[in-house]
Each structure stands twice: as C-alpha cells, then as structure tokens.
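Practice problem: predict the structure.
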Amino acid sequence: MEDLEREELGGNPDWMSHLPEELLDVPLWNLAIPGSHDSMSFCLDVSSPVLKSEPCLLRGIDRLFPCWTRPCVSRWATTQQSVLSDQCDLGVRFLDLRIARKPAGSRKLFFAHGIYTLITVKEALDELATWLDAHPKEIVMISCSHFDSLTDEDHVSLVEFIITLFGKKLCSSQDIPTLRSCWSRGQQVVVSYSNQQMVLLHPELWTEIPYWYADSADPKKVIAYLEDQKRKGRPGGFYVSGLNLTEDALYVLLHPLQDMRKMTRRALSLLLHWASEQHPGGEVGGVNILCCDFVGISQFCSLVIGLNDKLLGGAGTVAACPASRMLGASS
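Answer:
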C-alpha cells in the first residue's frame, strides 16, 4: 500500500475517454468514480466569520477571539489543496460544493466549510466550464448543497446561472446517463441540487445524491460504517461513499496546531486498503462515487479509476436501474 500513499503526479485528465468499449454503456452510477470531499475548502478566508450553522460554542468563541478561532478552523476545515481544474486533472469527477452567502456585503455567493471561501461560486464554475471545454469526453458530477443563508431569490439566480453556463452540457435527470449516451449528446455535467423545490422546476437538476458519511475521526469506524451501509443495499442511482474524517468543535479548539491533513495522512493506509477491495456495479455492496480528503497526496484517484477493471467481462450484465430522480440525504 506504500505506492498508493505516494503523491499523485501524472494525473488522469481524460480517464473516462480511455475506458474500454465494454464499459461505455454502463450507467454512470455503476462505475467507480473518484470524488473530492468539500472540494472548495482549499481557499478558506481566515478574515471571514464562522458560519451561523456551526455549533454555538464555536460561534461564541469566534466573537471573542476571532484572530485565534478562524486560523484554527481553517486548519481543520481545509480538506483539499488545489483548484477544481487541478482536481479534475487528477481524475476527480465528483465535486462536493457547499454554497453559502456571507452575512453582509454583496449578493455574490461563496462556498463554505466552517468559514467562507475567497473564491466565488461564479469564479469556480467558470473555471470548471473552461476545463470541460478542453476535455469534451469527461463527465463531472456537481453536488450543490447546504446553501447556508441563501434566499429564494439566491436559488433562482444560482440555478439560472448554472443552466446558462453549462447549457447543452447538462445531463437531464430524466435520462440514464452512460458514457456513450453523454458523448452522443455532448453532455458533460450532472448537477445534483439539494433544494427539492428547484429540482421540481428544472429537469436539468438532479435530486440530492446520497452521501454515506460516518462522522468520525477514526478510520476503523469509518470503514465499519461503510460496510454496514453496504449490507443494507446501495441506492438505485448515484451515491457517495465518504472516506473523509471528522472531528468535533471542541477537539478542534483544543488542538489549534494540528490540522486535517496530518489526520488524513495517518488514516490513508487503512482507507486506501478498504477502497482497493471494493467492486463497482449495481449489485448489493457495489460502490459508485468514493470521496476523499486531499485527493492529490496519494494515488486515491488512480486506485478508484482502476476499480472499473473489475467490471470487464461482465459489463453487459450491469443493471441500468431507472433512478433518474433518486432520493437521499447528503452529509
């Protein structure tokens, strides 16, 4: 497993276009797809306040000692280290975008994880659209969620922007997307949106993609949770197995000099070993999207992409379940 813990150097910018013919008609929710947890957390703004949705303890201390609280939160809430185009070059095809509006100021939308980001939603999605133009056979799943402090007007504006920006690249939630079907229509983007009212109004939006999330800092407990979920049966459409770790607010405040990157590195061996033993597909226990923190510090993306080799020889029997409007909750 030591090789898998090396930094991803070469990347996988066009891995979908290089999959074998036998996998081109497999529904995307039956392929193994690498994803990044809290994809925009690489650019947190230490001058911004703690989110209203964070625990009262954290918000209270932030009001008293912001110069101490915010750098501490940033160290623990930073779970990625590079911009979206670099993540996509590594092979990431699922982006976990947690959207928020700052409590004061302009109507611009940002991302957030504990505190707000420096980069706006428009800037990040514009960058992604440019990357997609350069990689016309790659399909990306975007999960828009949380929506901290967004108004109804914000939702309308955001959805209008998404539909205008991506246009014909958007995969309809009425379809069963495969690589071949997406390529034939010029489609490259699946947008999951965790506001059901907006989803019902726009067939370009997909319901919230379920995210299996253990909410633990112990990699053994994360693996045990995921195994328990697998035994219950996988969702019919897209879903995420989260390999990410979590600490509570009190631990974060008591360990201001530690950070999530060090915790992730210590857990990588166990988490990558578990991932290497998984099998994609529609059967009970089959994985789909696997999400990880700091996707560039190991061979995580290459490992997950390689799981699709296990489908060869049986790709024709992979079920195409009609789950175009799957239901579920995200972490």
